[in-house]
């Protein structure tokens, strides 16, 4: 039996999802009764029904009861029902759900009354760029707000610099700080993760079994890197020439591979959209090629960029200037070519290539270096919640960033089901919109701010020059400075490599809303 049984007291224990073949072992461990707290339709075909578990329990001589509890939490009636079962069933009792947390929480409610629920004005889910920035902005507007930030991580990363690290242009240690150092003064940091939402009751359920009540909820946990969707990738990351600038520990390995390579075949990949910073996959290629050119070895290196998309960049204005660099570096573009499998020891990668007729062919390619960008999706807790849209992202009005069905809920950052570029620059603008709109909602006023889809992608086409792509919904150009945005500039490199990191730590995360177009004094 794979599931760990957690003893609550002498008569009651809990476990995660069990299978019928586990039941004899449950009996052998001395349990007399089994309770299923997981609804049948929650986990898909791999989840055994309560009827199958009932049959297995009867065959092993155990009592069995079905008391399903939704992931959003138990009701008072369900707690009373468990209390009644505990009076009837032979002891000891083992209850199970998906992880065991629901069963433990239900038992606590049944035997000790309602569990302790902490109350806050605003709960912020996530302490990445979006979460810290919006929390700081809210507290600058109203320092009396009771704000809780839910975040299990102990370190905060400046991810936009990881591409520079992979190109040998930035120190990796400068991209991370302790989480405690960026938590805004006045906010309460809760070191846990959100396991479920109960929006009808204005509650979030945490991984430690506790609950948080809110008046408003801001959802900004970022997105999830799905490394596991590429067969064999997780086994070879960080060795055999396989790397990725999308992980803090791997960006230095990218630079190690780049500076040591003198000849061979290099593959870069880009998965289907949406992804975090859509320009980052090709930025890795440009910086690598620039280094090899300066070292005089580029002519001995075959470079290929495999994109799942049919175009180089989503905003047509920037395609032509980027193509000049692709051609100058002699890189080959393979459109609609999606990485699906990697074998590190044999240095082989497989791509599913779609032709113009829609036919898909599996193509094998050898490599000396492979830079991978993984598929990306909304976090599991978002995708399985009632807050998600059809694609699994957090559903929001694209202008107000307010949830259309739960008006007390807002979202920003990578988790949003909006068409803007998923970048830290987008979160910077969105934070102002959410903070102002949330404060207005609390005062019973109309929401004053509208987000235009702004995102920024500083395309590092060579070490020392950047094409500063700034755009909004529909690909509309939204340049901050009155200059031709299609020209690679040294000033834009200074902005990307020097000014923006400083501003991130000392401005953005402190709630200083410079150059946001809707800043508040």
UniProtKB/TrEMBL annotation:
Keywords on record: FAD, Flavoprotein, Oxidoreductase, Quinone, Transit peptide
SUPFAM superfamilies: FAD/NAD(P)-binding domain
Biological processes annotated in GO: sulfide oxidation, using sulfide:quinone oxidoreductase
UniProt keyword Ligase, yes or no: no
A Pfam family annotated for this UniProt entry: Pyr_redox_2
Cofactor: FAD
Protein name per the record: TIGR01244 family phosphatase
Taxonomy of the source species: Bacteria, Pseudomonadati, Pseudomonadota, Gammaproteobacteria, Pseudomonadales
């Amino acid at each position: 039996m794979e599931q760990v049984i957690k003893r609550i007291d002498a008569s009651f224990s809990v476990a995660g999802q069990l299978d019928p073949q586990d039941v004899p072992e449950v009996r052998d461990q001395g349990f007399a009764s089994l309770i299923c707290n997981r609804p049948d339709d929650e986990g898909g075909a791999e989840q055994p029904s309560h009827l199958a578990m009932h049959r297995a329990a009867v065959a092993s001589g155990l009592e069995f009861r079905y008391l399903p509890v939704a992931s959003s939490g138990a009701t008072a009636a369900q707690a009373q029902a468990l209390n009644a079962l505990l009076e009837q069933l032979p002891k000891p009792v083992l209850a199970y759900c998906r992880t065991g947390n629901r069963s433990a929480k239900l038992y606590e409610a049944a035997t000790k009354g309602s569990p302790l629920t902490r109350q806050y004005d605003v709960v912020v889910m996530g302490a990445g760029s979006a979460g810290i920035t919006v929390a700081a902005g809210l507290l600058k507007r109203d320092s009396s707000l009771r704000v809780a930030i839910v975040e299990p991580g102990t370190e905060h990363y400046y991810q936009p610099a990881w591409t520079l690290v992979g190109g040998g242009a930035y120190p990796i240690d400068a991209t991370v700080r302790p989480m405690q150092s960026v938590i805004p003064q006045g906010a309460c940091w809760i070191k846990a993760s959100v396991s479920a939402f109960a929006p009808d009751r204005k509650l979030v359920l945490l991984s430690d079994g506790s609950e948080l009540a809110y008046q408003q909820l801001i959802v900004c946990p970022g997105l999830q890197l799905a490394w596991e969707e590429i067969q064999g990738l997780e086994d070879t990351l960080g060795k055999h020439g396989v790397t990725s600038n999308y992980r803090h520990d791997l960006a230095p390995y990218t630079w190690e591979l780049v500076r040591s390579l003198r000849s061979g075949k290099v593959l870069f990949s880009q998965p289907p959209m949406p992804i975090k910073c859509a320009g980052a996959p090709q930025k890795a290629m440009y910086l690598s090629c620039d280094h090899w050119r300066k070292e005089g070895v580029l002519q001995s290196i075959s470079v290929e960029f495999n994109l799942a998309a049919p175009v180089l960049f989503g905003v047509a204005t920037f395609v032509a200037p980027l193509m000049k660099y692709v051609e100058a570096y002699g890189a080959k573009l393979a459109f609609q070519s999606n990485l699906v499998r990697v074998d590190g020891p044999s240095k082989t990668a497989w791509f599913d290539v779609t032709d113009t007729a829609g036919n898909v062919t599996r193509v094998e390619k050898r490599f000396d270096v492979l830079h991978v960008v993984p598929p990306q999706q909304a976090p599991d807790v978002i995708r399985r919640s009632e807050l998600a849209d059809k694609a699994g992202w957090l559903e929001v009005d694209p202008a107000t960033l307010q949830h259309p069905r739960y008006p007390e809920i807002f979202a920003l950052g990578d988790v949003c089901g909006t068409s803007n570029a998923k970048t830290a620059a987008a979160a910077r603008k969105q934070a102002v919109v959410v903070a102002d709109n949330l404060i207005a909602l609390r005062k019973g006023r109309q929401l004053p701010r509208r987000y235009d889809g702004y995102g920024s992608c500083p395309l590092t086409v060579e070490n020392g020059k950047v094409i500063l792509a700034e755009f909004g919904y529909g690909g509309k150009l939204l340049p901050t400075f009155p200059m031709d945005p299609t020209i690679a500039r040294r000033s834009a490199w200074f902005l990307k490599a020097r000014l923006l990191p400083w501003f991130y730590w000392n401005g953005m995360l402190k709630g200083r809303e410079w150059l946001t177009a809707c800043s508040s004094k």
